[in-house]
Design brief:
Blueprint: E1 4-12, E2 17-19, H1 20-41, H2 51-58, E3 62-64, H3 91-107, E4 116-120, H4 131-139, E5 144-148, H5 154-167, E6 173-180, E7 200-208, E8 219-228, E9 234-235, E10 260-261, H6 263-284, E11 294-297, H7 302-313, H8 326-329, H9 336-343, E12 353-360, E13 364-372
Parallel strand pairs: 4-5, 4-6, 11-12
Antiparallel strand pairs: 1-7, 1-8, 2-3, 6-7, 8-13, 9-10, 12-13
This protein binds coenzyme A (COA).
Length: 373
């Protein structure tokens, strides 16, 4: 059994930004148009969105998106991302490669030294050929690649696999990449969810720690853990069977098939499960929350993270202990906790413990206990 480290971390944040005010203005213009139509049919009118509500309820002030064009147009409200020919690099692979190159640079490795890519995201652009295999070809890594997903726990779940594959000796170096282009699948006409998400890509290099190797400033992965429990409270039904239920199978009906969530149920249920997961996982290693220098939690809701930590610690915990990147990025699904890690570890000292804990659809929770070398 080998000791395992995260030798490289990379995050790619797309430049375009959308503020709450811009998003709400576009949403409310669409509601005006839609309500004018509804008045003629007798359907119940829709309610408007509100920027102050968004900040208060979620903590999100803005989000970065891979493509602004189209999202704010009330007649479209979907990013306009042109299709690429089959022989061109796909957008998801391109986004994954951007963070992968940063992670490889951080690790001081050439792509040819990586023998597995796991591309793990809450939404993949297509099922096959795997995005990871496209990345393998474009980067020049060797061995194999495959895609997987576990909602917002996607990066944590892939880390769980990568760590155990390296620990067992099955692979030498695994590149875990989580390119989240979640705006492509978001229903910008749904008042409950239109403000929640943003796009980001993260990558980590996982490899063994050779005997006598010190690797200061890198994290040893002491343990990883996954937990899942069925819930329909965050769900998407878009898939190959969508068309089989339709009268015209060659027209995709998106109504009800994009992301939907019962936010307040998710909030309550995942807060309880998340706090329990953290306390039990740490206890298995003889640790209390107080012993952990930093928590990189899933970035879905600022109040939710504060509550999880308050339950775990018994008192309020500040952002130095549990940094938030949600305010500027929104919820970047599987990428969020790793962006928080990428931006908030340089001040840690050897021996410091850190905990990655991501949670979301499934329900799912994924954790990794780290110690700085
Ligand atoms: C989504 C979320 C921000 C909503 O916040 P909330 O406080 O739970 O809000 P609720 O859904 O209970 O709605 C509260 C009120 O705000 C209203 N509201 C909802 N969306 C609104 C919007 N965009 N603008 C204005 N008001 C809104 C509701 O209609 C409701 O009004 P009412 O009290 O008059 O009925 C929050 O539930 C959340 O973040 N949940 C966790 C999500 C998560 O972790 N997901 C997992 C990872 S993807």
């Amino acid at each position: 059994m080998h000791r395992v480290i995260i030798s490289g971390i990379g995050a790619e944040i797309p430049e375009p930004v959308i503020t709450n005010e811009e998003l709400v203005e576009s949403f409310n213009s669409w509601v005006d148009m839609e309500n004018a139509r509804r008045q003629t049919t007798g359907e119940a009118p829709l309610q408007k969105s509100d920027a102050d509500f968004i900040v208060h309820a979620s903590g999100v002030r803005s989000r970065h998106v891979i493509e602004r064009e189209g999202i704010l147009d009330p007649a479209r409200m979907t990013p306009r991302i042109p299709a690429r020919p089959d022989d061109a690099l796909s957008l998801e692979a391109e986004f994954g490669i951007a963070s992968a190159r940063k992670a490889l640079d951080h690790a001081g490795l050439e792509p040819s030294q990586v023998d597995l890519i796991i591309c793990s995201a809450s939404h993949h652009q297509r099922p096959y050929p795997a995005i990871a295999i496209e990345m393998q070809q474009a980067l020049g890594t060797v061995g194999a690649g495959f895609d997987m997903g576990l909602g917002c726990s996607s990066a944590a779940a892939a880390l769980h696999m990568a760590v155990n594959l390296v620990r067992s000796g099955a692979h030498k170096r695994v590149l875990v990449t989580t390119p989240e282009i979640i705006t492509g699948h978001l229903n910008f006409r749904d008042r409950q969810t239109h403000f929640i998400f943003g796009d980001a890509s993260v990558s980590m290099v996982v490899e063994g720690l050779a005997q006598g190797d010190k690797r200061p400033g890198r994290f040893e992965v002491l343990d990883t853990r996954l937990w899942t429990q069925m819930s329909n409270n965050i769900r998407t039904n878009l898939g190959y069977h969508t068309r089989t239920a339709q009268d015209d199978p060659y027209m995709i009906d998106l109504e009800g098939n994009l992301i939907k969530q019962v936010g307040n149920k998710v909030f309550k249920e995942v807060t309880v499960a998340g706090h329990k997961f953290i306390v039990e996982f740490l206890a298995e290693h003889g640790l209390t929350p107080e012993a952990v220098r930093r928590f990189w939690l899933h970035q879905a809701n600022a109040r939710m993270n504060a509550m999880i930590l308050k339950l775990a610690f018994g008192h309020d915990v500040g952002h130095d202990r549990a940094p938030m990147v949600l305010e500027k990025l929104g919820n970047t699904a599987g990428a969020g906790a790793i962006v928080a890690l990428s931006e908030n570890h340089a001040d840690m000292t050897p021996g410091d413990f850190g905990l990655i804990c991501a949670f979301g659809a499934g329900y799912s929770i994924g954790g990794a206990l780290l110690r700085m070398l």
